[in-house]
Amino acid sequence: MNSHDGLTYVYAAAPDTRRLRTGLVGVRGVSGAPVSLLGPLGESENASGGTPGTSDTEDAVAFVVSRVAPREFDERALKRRFEDLEWLEGVARAHNEVVQTIARHDTVLPLRLATVYENDDRARRALVAQGHAFAERIRLLRGHSEFGVKLYVTTAAAPEETRGDADARSGDTAALSPGKAYLRRRRAQHTAQESRYLHAQQAAERLEALTARFTPHRVRHPAQRGALAGPDENVLNDAYLVPDDRADAFRAAVTAAAQDLEGVRVDVTGPWAPYSFAMPAPSLQRLPADGDRDGRAP
């Protein structure tokens, strides 16, 4: 497939700079296709009459693109392909690797998986139409990374449950019927579980106050369930946009937030490219202050 065949797959919007164009040399994306920058004008000129990527102006924005085959990525094919988990995993991995590569060189505004245009001209029209919004969001993201913060209620038996079980089998409870002994054990387990949930609420309140000292930007995701959550119960699943120069302090403070609370734990992940803060972002919140067919993405 030559550079003008196929559909235009868009990974992200990013500053159109020499540094990023150089950093993308040799990078391969979905289906092993070469990745490049696509500016709002043709490859031979930009608004100042020079070549793309030479102005390094803060608001010069381009799409990061590659070519993909219509048989895999046109509208009809995507409806079918999105049910193929193995195919979807491969595309998602390639997409993420390109986004993370961009993040190592410059600010990146990730776009949704399988954002596809019929050709470069359609992609450029979208870039021109949304260029101001993209530039505004990139200014917000510059010098920041995403961190994930998850709060869990553990399911392992607490020490007091073990003691309660032992008491129920000895001493003055030895004469209890099996049914009554079982109910006593269940009451002890319920009491311990209630204690863990109270500790989780306390940890959540601490995190709310603590994270507001580092950043006003949070996205609250649904709590994870099933295999994604693992053996413990996920009760909080947030993403934060953290200044890079405060990243280490943020991680240390959040990690320590629940260390004295039994039955709960806090996991911090990152830094990541700011997927949760890409556009559109209807769930984007500011924390309380301290003091024709265009892109298709099913």
What would a concise description of this structure say?
With 298 residues, the chain is an alpha+beta fold. It has helices spanning 18-23, 70-73, 75-81, 85-105, 120-141, 159-168, 178-211, 247-256, and strands spanning 7-15, 36-38, 61-68, 109-117, 144-153, 217-220, 233-243, 264-272, 284-286.
Question: How is this structure best described in words?
Answer:
This protein folds into two domains: 7-142, no CATH class; 146-156 and 193-286, ACT domain (Alpha-Beta Plaits), CATH 3.30.70. The longest helix is centred in the middle third of the chain and has 34 residues, at 178-211. The model is unreliable at 43-55, 158-171, 281-286 and 288-298 (pLDDT under 50). The protein contains eight helices and nine strands. 38% of the residues lie in helices and 22% in strands. With 298 residues, it is α+β, with helices and mostly antiparallel strands. It is elongated.
From the structure above, extract its key features.
disordered C terminus; 9 strands; four-stranded antiparallel beta sheet; 298 residues; Alpha-Beta Plaits; elongated
> How helical, in percent, are the residues?
25-40%
What's the pLDDT, averaged over the residues? 81
How many helix segments? Answer: 8
Integer count of domains: 2
Instruction: Please write the string of helix (H) and strand (E) elements.
Output: EHEEHHHEHEHHEEHEE
Overall strand count: 9
Residue share in β-strands:
15-25%
